[in-house]
Amino acid sequence: MKTIPLAIIGAGPAGMAAARTAARHGLRPVVFDEQPAPGGQIYRALESTPLRDPELLGQDYWHGRSLIEALRREPVDYRPGHMVWQLTRAGEIGVLAGDTAALIRAERVVLATGAQERPFPVPGWTLPGVMGAGAAQVLLKTSGVVARAPMILAGSGPLLYLVAVQYLRAGASVAAILETTPQENRRLALAHIGGAIRGWRYLRKGAGLLRELKRAGVRHERHVVALRAEGEEALTGVGWRTAERPDDWQHCEATTLLLHHGVVPNVQMTRALGGEHDWSEQQLCWRPRRDAFGRSDIENFFIAGDGGGIGGARAAQLQGELAALAALESLGHIDGPTLAREAAPVRRKLDAELVVRPFLDALYRPGDSWRRPDDEVVVCRCEEISAGEIRRVARLGCAGPNQMKSFTRCGMGPCQGRLCGLTVSEILAAENGQSLEQTGYYRLRPPFKPITLGQLASAAGDAPGAPAWNETETAS
Amino acid sequence: MERDRDRFVKPTALVIGGGLHGASAATQLARSGFRVTVVEKNYAGRHASGVNAGGVRRLGRHPAEIPLAVAALERWQRLEALIGDDGGFHPCGQIKVAENDENMARLVSRAAEVRELGFDHEITLSRDELRRRVPAVAPHCVGALACDGDGAANPYRTLTAWRRQSQREGAIWREGVRVTRVDRAPGGGWRLSTDHPDLPGLDADWLINCAGGWAGELCGALDECVAMQAQALMLTITERVTPFLGPVIGSASRALSFKQMDNGSVMIGGGIAGCIDTGGERADVRLAGLAENVQTALGLFPFMRDVRVVRTWAGIEGVTGDGIPVLGLSWRHPRLIHSFGYSAHGFQLSAITGEIVRDLALEREPALPIAPFDIRRFDSSSAAARASHTH
Ligand SMILES: Cc1cc2nc3c(=O)[nH]c(=O)nc-3n(C[C@H](O)[C@H](O)[C@H](O)COP(=O)(O)OP(=O)(O)OC[C@H]3O[C@@H](n4cnc5c(N)ncnc54)[C@H](O)[C@@H]3O)c2cc1C
Ligand SMILES: Cc1cc2nc3c(=O)[nH]c(=O)nc-3n(C[C@H](O)[C@H](O)[C@H](O)COP(=O)(O)OP(=O)(O)OC[C@H]3O[C@@H](n4cnc5c(N)ncnc54)[C@H](O)[C@@H]3O)c2cc1C
Questions:
Q1: Where are the domains of chain A?
Q2: Angle at CA of residue A94, ends A88 and A100, nearest 5°
Q3: Alpha-carbon span A156 to A300, nearest angstrom
């Protein structure tokens, strides 16, 4: 098995910035990303999107250009289309490219795998036609194609408005926005108004998006307290109730429903590696432990970007620089004083970038009933386990999600618990009167994403000494 | 008052390890009048016992284990009556496949060897008979060795059933408690220290070492000589596929265990070693080993190439130098019984080992031969030790 000094997993803002920093210090990192092109979530398909009009996807999108250009220009071994399906604490990385799995070892690893959308279980969310707003945005950025039929967006958070606006500008017909942000959030967020004022750029952007939706005449329902996706074989409509009319189900026909309750760190890898995770009451998610430089509590592993806690694209970029510096220092490639000197201005910018977060987190915090749905709602889509079943098993004495797996197979399907993990932990904690920390989360097992037996078997030659790593196939 | 009297009359036993062998021993000891406490540092079934492949197999056993495995199967067949749940046991049979004539010759002589020992559970299958029973197997396979009545069960469910039964018999379980120190108590029994603030010390007349992958450490603390290693054994599980396989499949020449579960998922294992974290509590899969294991499986079932892997994992197991367990009395200390080192095939045996531990604690001759599992086989001065004991 070949050993490399530095692997970076993820080519979003965090991973690209980390690669650029390492390359500028004369160390050539290998960057793995499963996507065919660099950019991560926010700058996805920037080089190839058919939506070339800069107004359409917005200035924040096109900001990614310089990072992508650096990735292409600097001495970086960038490997698109390489999915990391396994990692060990010894730095063994299993990558899958096409139908070939290979193994490689890295002395240091920067995890920059980003965020995922928070699970948003409502009645009918498994119907075809219902999907995450973020997933829909991926389709928009890569293909530029929008369906003619009316769509509804439901949920909360800045990305919900952004996706709505991006779809509108691309010519979609948005029938309604159903906003689930609880009424009291506004008041609770005021406590953090100081940070919000200093982070005015975000607020201005948010207000601009809202104005644009209003100008376009999009129906905007606020204080939605219940939501259901309707239809037999596929989505035909959406029903909801609001705080102002709590007894009336209102309806609207639609064939697409985009759901969004914010994003949470993608913890598949840090969990599989057995790192410590803390529950963030502010962001209602697990955060892998990392220090101010992104050093994790797993030796030789560093975490940059939204995978360590939600800070947004600009923060991710700065964290990528810091993590690369820390990795270079731990490799002995730069010394301590250099690390301190170069990190100081980056950390100042990062602090300024993060100052708005407490306000945003409080403003868009999803209410309890959305995170711990009613008994009849399916929570684990793979094994079809309902919230009621989880509560029933909790009453039988099941204290944690891992025992829940043994009892019900909940979380053991191909999605690896990505779509149910948070919900299961939150329901169990509430049911057992425990903290989230006491309740814990799934012990994650590789593969992080499905790989076929044939692909896995193709790594069989990669025992020490075998030609596992093709030097000549460098992509950049 | 009642309690004090109880304490006076009933001997006490402390079982270290809440896996299957601990649960089995606890059940039988409690039933025979011991006051039993099981101490488990994590939770019941956290390690090998909760995460194994669930193979219930007599097929291919070491000759020394055959009598125990045969007796254990008899218990599996009436598990529900014994412990209130059948553990999901399906007697779907186990088959070891020969991929060439040389393999087949070895299986034929193995069957003869087993018959010579007085058992008739292993039978050879012709190529046609193999194909009839396992239509999906690759065409190059020439025959097999089969054991009807063997099969598979659900490990966590089985462990839970044994734990519940032991509790019904009166055993007390202390999970999340680690035994950190073992001392001889002045009166001839044992005094244990734990890491739990509420349980600083535990006393018992008898100590039962069922500590699985950690049993070697415990032996070290007790000055017992043993060649045992904790190993991480790996398994791979696939998405659901249309039912195509009844029996559990092994290979005559390669490490493999391959079976389709009730829900359609296929489980691939074979005692392939992964890695154990330095802390000793976490098992990691080793990619190269997994890949080889899967390659072996695809050799027998090539049509599975495009089936997706859903999960892989590794569990920690105690593996001895000679691959058979340690089961018997200590010769260094009175009132210490060992039951560990099941070396990747202790799931099936757990149905009988508790009875053996019970017999030993009652100071009577076990009904089954356990001399080959004597811990003295690892002691360099064992000849001397044995000589002094036979007086
Ligand atoms: C669906 C979605 C859409 C979003 N859209 C926007 C937006 O439009 N505007 C905005 O400001 N913020 C958006 N965000 C928020 C986003 O998290 C941050 O803005 C920013 O992209 C975070 O940067 P990052 O580098 O930490 O992670 P990301 O940009 O998410 O980059 C992570 C990269 O890691 C790769 N990766 C992950 N797992 C593996 C693996 N196993 N193997 C190989 N590669 C892997 C991914 O392919 C991805 O390219 C979105 C988030 C999500 C989840
Ligand atoms: C992946 C895998 C697949 C397998 N497949 C099969 C199969 O198909 N068929 C088969 O027959 N066998 C199989 N086995 C083997 C079988 O699972 C084991 O032999 C059996 O479960 C061992 O049980 P045990 O009670 O000895 O150990 P364990 O289940 O490991 O229990 C020992 C317990 O002791 C506890 N402990 C240790 N030290 C202390 C301490 N100081 N204080 C408190 N508690 C302590 C541990 O936490 C542990 O829970 C497999 C094993 C693995 C790992």
A1: 3-115+264-334, 120-260, 372-439
A2: 165
A3: 37
* Residue recorded with tokens 């757990």: B350
ipTM above threshold 0.85:
yes
Would the CB of B178 count as within 6 Å of ligand 2? yes
The two structure tokens encoding residue B103: 């393999």
Task: Please judge whether B285 and A1 are an interchain contact, meaning their C-beta atoms are less than 8 angstroms apart.
Answer: no
What's the A294 CA to ligand 2 centre distance in angstroms? 37
Domain A372-439 in the same topology as domain A3-115+264-334:
no
State the pLDDT at residue A52.
Answer: 84
All residues of chain A having their beta carbon less than 8 Å from the beta carbon of residue B290 are 456
Res B349: pLDDT: 98
Tens digit of each residue's pLDDT (9 = 90 or more) over A78-108: 999 999 999 988 899 999 999 999 989 999 9
Check whether domain A120-260 has CATH 3.50.50.60, yes or no: yes
Cross-chain residue pair A274–B277, CB shorter than 8 Å:
yes
Average pLDDT, chain A: 91
For the segment B245-283, what is each residue's pLDDT rounded down to a tens digit? 999 999 999 999 999 998 899 999 998 898 887 677 888
pLDDT tens-digit readout, A205-241: 888 999 999 999 999 999 999 999 999 999 999 999 9
- State the fold for domain A3-115+264-334: FAD/NAD(P)-binding domain (3.50.50)
Confirm if A458 and B291 have CB atoms less than 8 A apart: yes
Q: Which of A94, A403, A412 faces B287 most closely, judged by CB atoms?
A: A94
Third-level CATH fold of A372-439: Arc Repressor Mutant, subunit A (1.10.10)
**B110 CA distance to ligand 2 middle (Å):** 28
Q: Are strands B248-251 and B257-260 parallel, antiparallel or unpaired?
A: antiparallel
Q: Are A104 and A93 in contact (CB under 8 A)?
A: yes
| Nearest protein Cα to ligand 1, atom 19 | A313
Of A89, A413, A459, nearest to B288 by CB-CB distance is A459
Contact A358, A311 (CB under 8 A): no
pLDDT number for residue B187? 81
> Any idea what DSSP says for residue B381?
T
